[in-house]
Input
Amino acid sequence: MGAICCCFQKHSDDYRILCTVDDNLSQRKLKDTYRSIIESRKLTIPHNLLQQSNYERNLNPYALVWCDTNINSTQENQHIQLELRHMFNFLQIFESADNCKRYLQNETNQEIILIVSGAIGQHLIPEIHIMTHLLIIYIFCKQKDGHEIWSKQYEKVKNIFTSANELVKQIYNDQQTQRKSHSTDLPMTFMQQTMTSIYSQVVSESSHQIFDSEFMWFQLLIEILLRMNLESIKIHFQELLSICRKQYGYNETNIKYITELETTYNANQAIWWYTRETFFQYILNCALRRQNIDLLVKFSFLIRDMNEQLKVKSNFNHSIVHLYRGQLMTIVEFDNLKMNIGKYVSMNSFLSTTKSRQVALLYAGTYNVDLTKVSILFEIEVDTQAEDRRPFRDITEQTTIESEEEVLFMLGSIFKIHNICRNEEEKVWIVKLTASGEEDNELRELFRSIKD
Output
């Protein structure tokens, strides 16, 4: 197995770090690879790339937390717990407000949905309401009287419930909304145009330091995952099945998916498995958003097989094609895009696009009423003859919705942001991108240093 060599140069100094991919690559070794690069270059990297993963406790982007002194003392509450575990697959319960608060303070890397009794909530909510990762609060109690007045001042309180059925129904509906929101998330990192600016940005304290370092580390991570040997991949595949059984064992449908994956999966089905509406796609996308190295290593079988499938050439009618992607984006994410016009952006997930502009506009949410979100339409120009970029492919025949004319890009695909303008008639922001490759002037040396 070859080695990944990262060669960085600043002025007359030459820095070289050798990252070997051997037969026993493990999660710990992969993390150590990252650390060795950082320590040798005296660089910083975002904390989420190095922290211990919580995947054994929660594979989802958000967790359901329930705090009630009587949570285990009534048969009704125990029945509700079973229903909620079927829906969320992950439920954390507390009888103590202090333990619940401590958990919320520690679990800042995942979004929290909280159920709390009225008695505890009256004292706990004022202390935790400001937490940005706390999304929704449901108050569940026997009587609303006495709780309606004080709870009105806290906007995250969704409602007060006295009926278990109404509570579960509301949580289910809100979960579907949250799931749709996460399914359209598009994690991105940005890079300065020139190699000189990359190095000066990385070693400086500028606001772009995280963007540039993440850009390089994610491209390196992809190379490591693609170079893992088959024996290691088989081991990690079995580990993935094991942790999925632990977390999704409450749901018979999910158990069937796990068994099917274990007994029938082959490399030619990778794209099909990824595009199916199962929890596998959901947790892989979550791992990519969090850059959860431990979990991504477990998915190395699917990432490598999808990369090979995407290399199969599609029969496009023209050498230059135009593709589209519509989505809602937070104001903060959109501002980052505008700040990086003329620069490169790495899409740190598998990027789904379509040949149909009209289909993309439907996903852009042009009638969006959420003031915290912006309707975006990506217009992407792609040279189908170029050989120096991450693969992409028309997967129309491999998806369940052929009318969407889907074209899928490999994770880590890089694009240059050319322009952003407002289309008032369609009520959408147009972001013009061109697909970029390893031989682009500003990218050539970076990719050579990673792949040599």
The first strand starts at residue 3 and ends at 10. The chain has three domains: 3-54+200-309, 62-181, 313-451.
